[in-house]
Amino acid sequence: MGCKATLSLGPSPVTLHCEPTRKGGRMGEWLRSPIRGVLLDITGVLYESSAEHGTVIPGSVKAVNRLRESGMPFRLVTNETTTPTKVLLDKLRSFGYQLEERELFSPIPAVVKLLHQEQLVPHLLVHPKVEGELRVGEKGSPASCVVLGDAEDNFSYANLNSAFRALMVMPRPRLITLGYGRYYKHNQQLQLDVGVYAKALEFACGVESEVVGKPSPAFFNQALADMGVQAKEAVMVGDDISSDVEGAQKCGMRGVLVRTGKFTSSLLPHPTITPDCVVDNLAEAVDQILAAKGKN
Amino acid sequence: MGCKATLSLGPSPVTLHCEPTRKGGRMGEWLRSPIRGVLLDITGVLYESSAEHGTVIPGSVKAVNRLRESGMPFRLVTNETTTPTKVLLDKLRSFGYQLEERELFSPIPAVVKLLHQEQLVPHLLVHPKVEGELRVGEKGSPASCVVLGDAEDNFSYANLNSAFRALMVMPRPRLITLGYGRYYKHNQQLQLDVGVYAKALEFACGVESEVVGKPSPAFFNQALADMGVQAKEAVMVGDDISSDVEGAQKCGMRGVLVRTGKFTSSLLPHPTITPDCVVDNLAEAVDQILAAKGKN
To answer: Is the distance from CB of A41 to CB of A74 less than 8 angstroms?
Structure first.
């Protein structure tokens, strides 16, 4: 299957045509300019999330192995904040992914670094499993920011009110959100993501969120710098048309949307976002990227 | 105390000066054009909300009596949806207010009428106390809209997800919200209002809410029509700078802000909203309105 994409980076949109390379077709136009690094979303790209362990997405383990064998630099960039990074890594390894911790970029270490750097004391509204990692500052000190993560059932009316009141008494309210997604797929159904609650508190308090995680350019740039690759040479592969695809494009990368994870056909055509390519899954994206690599 | 207001209705703002009349001062400029009808917010203007019964605001019962004795038409317009209208009326009467049910305009009867008129089946995310009144349509029929009220503790993650999923499967998603407030004062502290959750679902689903209640012009106009008064001849007195003051002004009325209820001094000066007058309480607003009536 082929795809037609409008690159929305420059002032005048450029229409591109990408053809499948998997079955020996012509290289997609979106790959004419060489790819020297790849960023991969995790949930919905490497595995499907569920109440228990989740299930691996067929072909994705092999695709990651092929990237590594080809020498193509890659990093994992996730907004997953329902679980500590080490636990997530263990889960991915249990699916067969051979990954090192340094290859994974998550908002949790990034926000801990920010809190220390700016000597902020957070009021936390996060998942109970990651609260420990995010406790920064002396116990009993007044909060100087609110940190929102994928709190899931912790997003109660009482807890959202506490975060709201904490912001309302801060001399300079700061709302830091670990991602800005609308929803994700968990246990075969869509559920609300942290961005929805960030939006709610922004409206309640008249503040703007600071995003740590996708689609923040600072977050993408950290992973790009770690690979030593420029944005224009990189591609982000994800299942979130806003955080992954639009986020990557705004950062100067190419953005590829997979039809796994939270993807639904009603997403396309999107009124404002046009992925550089839409593929069935990670395996197809990697096929195209590596086929193009051979030709560049 | 005097106040200076910028009327933001026309294309070029008009600066007004209002002086107190309570102590025999000059009539406020905002009252130069005659007032022929008054709309009153309830919570934060007639009484302060609390976990138990609430407490009457000093001077407000007498102020309402004075309005009635003077022959000045008035109506109560509330976004209160945590309690059935009859229960709210009983509470107000227990404080000493002499009111008839027809004088009270609340979103609950308004939305029930809309649901019947448009043959909509609602997915409800409302307070348990008002669920019974809002159940419309045959049991088991698929929902064709989501109705959001002041659900308070019913605003759990699970319930917000259910409302989100209901919207996501509707061929033409309709999100109806009973008000669009940011927060209100309850039990001596601020708490999140229904507008915050409407905003959250708007962002999650990419839809726009339809507001039944303040600040919807249709809702204000219903009360104005009932008094037989035009918007330009009316004033709305409330403690919510957006729903009451800005809502009234956008509708063509004058909007007076009281320093009771959810009022906090940090609200003023507001970056975009300038009340026609700011008063200590309803008693002061009624003093000014009736003093001006005598002079017009």
So the answer is: no
